[in-house]
């Protein structure tokens, strides 16, 4: 691709209304049309497998979904499902036989065939859908999440898919889940002897049931179908419609948007300052060229204005892409507002310090995931977090000249360097005609 016409990944707006396969296919088609924009080092597989380095790591991906797009529940559920596939496969056969594979192609597996909706099939009435809960939930025992390595989607004869080839290096510790009580309500527990039934009940009340704290943006049909299936089995195949939708969404919408956002190495105040600085350089270049043209000075002195034009146009084009050339040359970026913990300590604190001081809703114990993430809990909102008030009270100067942290991902450096080279090329193309024009003008001899 010509350096002059290099483009970073296009922005994929959120689909209107609930997600379904038809809407997700639009993301897939756009990704195919834009193939080659994202280097292999920043592929979805590398990021989700936690192989990419900051600021494109899995933790950065979760932070982006939590604080920028406000849909972190998609990735949280996705990571849990990966772990659940592995644990179910490693469970004793005498337990897994109690949860047969669910066949969505079977008419008998349809909630419509049984005369019940997916919601009523799990024991809730129409009045209790939004407060779907578990009776006597205090008696639920915490389940241990075992280590997960290569996740194969071959349970019950399923064929491997791109989804399963993605997460081969995710590692999970053996820290048990923290207790989290769901909202009270009528929920009729069934098939309690099935493996992981209590955990599935918690997943339903947190992610799938209508009105759940972290309700996934699913279509009515997919939600009803999955709830109906989970009423009868805990086999991972019961999550197949959700798995397909989330995989397509994360891979073809959230991931390209995250890479696009990661290219920006400065915060919004710094970007505004940089654009203003670039425009001033361009105006100074015009002022120098005009003053020298009107004077007795040799016309060759007017070439000095070209330096100001080229420098200003380069920075203006790069700043339009959210990129600061100076920060790029130093291999740094500004810290994000949420990367400053409660005590004012900057990005780079240890995980233990971050977990101890941060107001982000993480597990109380050290996270069992490869990233800091709370699986169960309240909605993914951050309106009440202290960093918002503290950041809002900062002066414009502090917001503009924020602390810098290193950028380590070479794939990101590759994309940023191409954008800068593109800006330098266009600046040269614009500067040369301007320089020729002013140099060719006769002297004004006014002073």
Fold and architecture overview:
The protein is mainly alpha-helical. Helix content is 45%, strand content 1%. The chain contains 16 helices and two strands. The chain has a two-stranded antiparallel sheet with strand order 1-2. Helix 11 packs antiparallel against helix 16.
Topology at a glance:
Layout: H1 21-33, H2 44-48, H3 58-67, H4 73-90, H5 93-96, H6 111-114, H7 197-208, H8 220-230, H9 240-263, H10 268-294, H11 304-320, H12 325-329, E1 332-334, H13 351-357, H14 386-393, H15 396-400, E2 404-406, H16 410-440
Antiparallel strand pairs: 1-2
Helix pairs in contact: 1-9, 4-9, 10-11, 11-16
Radius of gyration: 27 Å
Shape: elongated
Strand content: under 5%
**Structure classification:** mainly alpha
Enumerate the strands of the largest sheet in spatial order, edge to edge or round the barrel.
Answer: 1-2
């Amino acid at each position: 691709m010509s350096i002059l016409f290099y483009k970073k990944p296009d922005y994929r707006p959120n689909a209107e209304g609930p997600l379904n396969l038809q809407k997700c296919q639009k993301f897939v088609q756009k990704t195919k049309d834009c193939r080659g924009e994202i280097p292999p080092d920043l592929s979805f597989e590398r990021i989700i497998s936690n192989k990419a380095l900051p600021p494109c790591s899995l933790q950065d991906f979760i932070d982006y979904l939590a604080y920028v797009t406000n849909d972190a529940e998609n990735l949280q559920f996705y990571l849990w499902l990966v772990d659940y596939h592995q644990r179910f496969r490693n469970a004793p056969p005498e337990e897994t036989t109690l949860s047969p594979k669910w066949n969505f192609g079977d008419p008998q597996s349809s909630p419509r065939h049984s005369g019940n909706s997916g919601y009523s099939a799990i024991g809730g009435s129409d009045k209790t859908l939004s407060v779907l809960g578990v009776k006597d939930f205090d008696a639920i025992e915490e389940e241990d999440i075992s280590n997960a390595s290569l996740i194969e989607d071959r349970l019950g004869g399923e064929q491997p898919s791109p989804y399963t080839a993605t997460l081969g290096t995710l590692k999970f510790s053996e820290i048990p889940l923290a207790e989290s009580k769901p909202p009270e309500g009528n929920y009729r527990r069934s098939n309690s002897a099935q493996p992981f039934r209590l955990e599935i009940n918690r997943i339903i009340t947190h992610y799938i049931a209508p009105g759940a704290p972290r309700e996934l943006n699913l279509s009515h049909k997919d939600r009803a179908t999955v709830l109906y299936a989970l009423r009868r089995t805990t086999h991972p195949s019961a999550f197949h419609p959700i798995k397909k939708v989330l995989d397509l969404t994360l891979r073809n919408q959230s991931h390209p948007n995250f890479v696009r956002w990661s290219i920006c190495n400065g915060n919004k105040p710094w970007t505004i300052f940089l654009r203003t600085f670039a425009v001033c350089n361009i105006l100074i270049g015009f002022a120098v060229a005009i003053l020298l043209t009107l004077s007795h000075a040799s016309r060759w002195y007017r070439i000095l204005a070209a330096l100001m034009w080229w420098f200003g146009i380069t920075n203006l084009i790069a700043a339009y892409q959210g990129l600061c050339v100076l920060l790029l040359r130093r291999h740094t970026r500004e810290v994000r507002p949420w990367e400053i913990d409660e005590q004012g300590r900057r990005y780079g604190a240890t995980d233990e310090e971050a977990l101890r001081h941060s107001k982000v809703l993480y597990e109380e114990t050290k996270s069992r995931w490869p990233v800091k993430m709370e699986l169960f809990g309240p909605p993914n909102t951050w309106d009440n977090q202290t960093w918002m008030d503290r950041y809002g009270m900062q002066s414009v100067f502090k917001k503009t000249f924020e602390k810098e942290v290193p950028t380590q991902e070479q794939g990101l450096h590759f994309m940023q360097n191409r954008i800068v080279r593109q800006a330098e090329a266009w600046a040269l193309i614009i500067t040369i005609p301007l320089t020729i024009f002013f140099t060719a003008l006769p002297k004004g001899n006014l002073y």
